[in-house]
Amino acid sequence: MDSRNIIFIMLDTVRADMLKPYGGSINVKNIGRLSNYGIKYNAAIAPGTYTLPSHLSIFLGKRVRSIPWLQFMGIRYSERMTDPFLRKSRYVAGRKELTIAQVMEYFGYRSALFSNNPFVSDATGLAAGFSHISNLFIENKLRTNKTSVKAVLGLIQSSYARRSLVRLAGHVSGLVPSTRLDEMYISLRKRLNAHFSKEYGYYDLDKGAAETNSRLESYIRYNNHPSNFIFINYMEGHEGYPTNLFTDRYVEQDKWLHMTGMASEEDLEVTRKAYSKRIEYLDTKVGQAIGMMRGKGMLDNATIIVSSDHGQAFMEHGTMFHNVHPHNEVIRVPLIMAYFRNGRQVREKVEIDKPFSLTELSNLITGRKQQHGNVVVSDHTGITEVWDTQLLRLLKKRSRNAETVYRKKVQQDMHSTAIFHGRYKLIHYYGNRKDELYRIDADPGESFNIIDKNRSVAHSLLEYGTAA
Length: 468
Fold this sequence. Notes:
Elements: E1 5-11, H1 29-36, E2 39-41, E3 44-45, H2 51-60, H3 100-106, E4 110-115, E5 132-135, H4 136-144, H5 147-157, H6 159-173, H7 178-199, H8 209-221, E6 228-234, H9 255-259, H10 265-295, E7 301-307, E8 313-314, E9 320-321, H11 328-331, E10 332-333, E11 335-341, E12 344-345, E13 350-352, E14 356-357, H12 361-366, E15 376-380, H13 389-395, H14 400-413, E16 416-421, E17 424-429, E18 436-439, H15 455-467
Parallel strand pairs: 1-6, 1-7, 2-13, 3-14, 4-5, 4-6
Antiparallel strand pairs: 2-11, 3-10, 7-11, 8-9, 11-12, 15-16, 16-17, 17-18
């Protein structure tokens, strides 16, 4: 590999079709400038439907379903108490497969990780291979998590505490009439949502980008290595969103209440606006980071890659946010590559329309051969939001609303795979649900399932997906 700096900017939770460079309405001037004179992939596909599987696939260059550590063996990692899902989502480092950071170190690069994400950290093993690690999310949560948040995280972490809580809820709910219980469940859920929205800083416009840039600048100032691999994860695209910029009232952002029809269309529209505002703000921070790196000489010979680990749904196909089945709004992401010489972007406007999996990025960066040919897959490995399953099972016997939420969670917890080949996309469900087949050229919004008249095509795609 030649001596150049490689800067990978991961915009967590950003879907492609809402950005102006991809025909959307969100104005991203800085990202657009990279796109205008760089290589733009118009059909980049995230390998998974949420952070951990997508990043594992990108870092290892392997398909999500082929990574055994995504079987969620329940490894406990509770001492930091920053996120309840770390304990069931830890990647065990030290196996034979090398992460992209380890490969880059082998090639003589100095690697640095700047992450605002609890999954992309040394807590999960995904920081393996990076010489410099800034886990901003974990550091900030350790410092700022309030007592009530830590208490709830403790309950979620402890199976004994959860069982005790469920037993208590069962005893109390038995004293409440069924008609009253239905109303109480939703009321309590909404009150808890509103409380933790404030506690978690949902309404903050900045989710760590400013501090990330500050850390990055400090690192570059004292690092004189000739070849650097820098991975930056910005979290501004992730829910919850600063709806307070548009209204004084509380706006419900509970994905399960949206997906079950218990949140209003008005709340959905305000949430979409707040998402757009966050992405616009994030774009300014990306521009600042690029300007700072240019000023420090990092772009005299460099490649900048901008992408996202997954998209974000706003009730297209009846789903909200991510970690749901792999329709395009969840897995089609931006991917832009820009080359710099002497601080200026090399002008080579190229657009690639063929589906491309982010799984292949490690091979692209390191110059290795692409592994999976013309077949692109994206795997949904089930949901992580299962901490309240025991409670829902208990309440659903007497509460219609609890039963509705429970059924929706079961539906989304089913594994599924999206398979792209040629003009078609198949969504295959590993359970009792009808598969979906779409013509991606004629129906990018996936409105018409044509599987009934194209069974042979669907079977062919399923074979391709199995072999990938």
